[in-house]
Write a structure and sequence with these properties.
This protein starts with a helix and ends with a strand. The protein is built from two helices and 14 strands, in the order αβββαβββββββββββ. Strands 3, 4, 5, 6, 7, 8, 9, 10, 11, 12, 13 and 14 form a twelve-stranded mixed beta sheet that branches. It has a two-stranded antiparallel sheet with strand order 1-2. The protein is 6% helix and 33% strand. The protein is mainly beta. Strand 1 and strand 2 form a beta hairpin. It has a single domain, classed as Sandwich (Immunoglobulin-like), CATH 2.60.40.1190.
């Protein structure tokens, strides 16, 4: 989420308000959405993505075997959050939507899977995690934050700026999520391959959105992140904030909702 010292300070000391690809694990094979990443230019713009509709039901199981996921476009590899280039540990994502949900799929290379937290709403940003920040109206004043670690532990937060000290445990949305790992967690003696995260965010939770469900051409601001701790600490973003903090909504990426279906 941030470098660890800044993140701990931001979340612990300020008392932040938080209210309101196909993967075939059975065969032991991870199918990657690889892209060639160019070095980050000094004037790096925000990232953009067109979210298309699903072709049918999505089962949230961490396995991207539905035709919708096979047809969906990848974001391409994320970058280091400071914009300096590509991280050693690749991560890519895909997004889809239907009348009820906004769907996310992450694929993360990881040679040393690490996580210990198993209770909902623990401080997952202290460990390895993927994160989703969603600002439906793009006003940079409030946004949803979701995090999932390799053990499948989840935290959901509603971030308001300026921050107010209300316990974030009171915010619990009916999201669904699932994780699949290809390797062993908390065992640095072997070499792991990676992990995937699949998550659905109910559109009704996007209370600041201009339209629900979104209309064709509606634009939201959101960002996708990953924190890697082992073997090398890395802060990774779809749309790099170019600052130590992930909480930089002016640098969130832009997604455009399309009524076209995945693959069209």
């Amino acid at each position: 989420m941030m470098n660890e010292a800044v993140e701990m300070s931001w979340k612990h000391k300020s008392g932040v308000l938080f209210v309101c690809s196909v993967l075939l694990m059975a065969a032991g094979v991870m199918v990657h959405w690889r892209r060639q990443a160019a070095p980050a230019p000094a004037n790096l713009g925000i990232s953009r993505y067109t979210v298309k509709r699903t072709l049918g039901p999505i089962k949230i199981d961490g396995v991207f075997d539905e035709p919708s996921w096979r047809a969906a476009a990848s974001t391409g590899p994320f970058r280091l959050n400071d914009g300096s280039g590509s991280p050693p540990s690749r991560v890519e994502a895909k997004m889809l939507w239907d009348e009820q949900n906004l769907y996310f799929a992450f694929e993360c290379d990881d040679s040393d899977l690490s996580a210990t937290m198993t209770k909902r709403d623990e401080h997952l940003w202290q460990e390895e995690v993927v994160e989703i920040f969603v600002d439906p109206d793009g006003d940079e004043k409030n946004y949803i934050e979701l995090e999932v670690n390799p053990l499948g532990t989840f935290i959901d937060l509603f971030v308001l700026t300026p921050v107010v000290p209300i316990p974030f445990e009171s915010y619990n949305i009916p999201a669904k999520w699932a994780v699949k790992v290809d390797g062993t967690i908390k065992n640095s003696s072997d070499r792991d391959k990676g992990w995937t995260v699949e998550l659905s965010l109910p559109l009704k939770e996007a209370v600041t959105a201009p339209n629900l469900p979104p209309k064709d051409g509606d634009k939201w601001r959101l960002n996708l992140y990953r924190i890697e701790r082992k073997p090398l600490e890395q802060y990774i973003a779809w749309s790099p904030t170019l600052k130590p903090s992930f909480h930089t909504p002016s640098r969130f990426g832009e997604v455009t909702f399309s009524t076209w279906k995945a693959g069209e």
